[in-house]
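Much of what follows relies on a compact textual record of a protein's fold. A complete example follows; check for yourself that the lines match position by position.
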Amino acid sequence: MISVGIIGGSGYTGKKLIRFCAAHPFIEEYKIYGNNSAGGKICDIFPELNEVIENSVIESIENVSYEHDAYFIALPHGEALNYVPALFERGKKIIDLGGDYRLNSPELYSKWYGKKHNSPLLLKEKIYGLADYSGTDYSEKNFVANPGCYPTAVLLSLLPVVKSFKDKILSVSVAAYSGTSGAGKTPKLELLMSEMDGDVSAYKLNSHQHQPEILQQLNEAGFDSPFSFAAHLLPAAVGIYATSFIHLKSSVEEKELKNAFEEFYKDSPFIRLREAPPHLNWVTGTNFCDINFSMKDKIIIITSAIDNLIKGAGGQAMQNMNKLFGWDEKSGILNQGVKNVQIY
């Protein structure tokens, strides 16, 4: 049994982490650390959790204990830099849900996040935790950089094709859509329902910080072709929907493509290959990624859907913690005897 610290546990992702920790068979206790929420009680912030979890007091982030076995860090970009080095030095298990350690280069981090990296050596010590990607070795590792929500949906779509057919790829372009919860809890005028209702718009074209993260992982898998990524905002609270267009030099058989996906995800309990393009509401409230592909001539179109707060954040983080400890990766997410843990 272990003790867990959640640093930044009063946001949308923090609520998911709390629910997963409360449902986990090997977590004996967990403590929440916050900034403005410090001193308050969890159920005052999340009334829906009343009588579901223990209504404990949120500790100040200034008084983070180093006595826990594992830590989830769910802070805005740049703030994990204040905690990760000390935790790593003490040999703690760390899962950082922000973007501070996802990129392999401190120069790339500075370019896309506008901050100087204070612990560049740790970029080589981290695991990029795309949890359903079986090529990652978690043995003898303590530190996971949890992928972003867009990269999770996009990479899970593209990696099987890149691994099997990279020499045939001419180019890849992606149009991806996110619910407003991806922007966090801080109020913003443009995210009000009266502003968002009935509207869709692209944003951060050629400047989204998830673009180099996606390309970095594709390159590591052998991809070396033109790539474009366009993010859009949906009038919905939760979800990521990605449509990827792969142009090939020569066509592949649909059976080959199907075999590539099935082989790639044969041991992945949270990947569901669909016969038709998924709907966003099939995955909201779950840790699943639903994927569909369509092949015609020399073009592959892949659609994928995830819950950005779960598969794109807290659920994948729990998978990564399970992998660090060598436990069943479904623990705390889908427990034995529980059909579906309530995580709304």
Summary: DSSP finds nine helices and 14 strands in the chain. The first strand starts at residue 2 and ends at 7. Residues 336-344 have pLDDT under 50 and may be disordered.
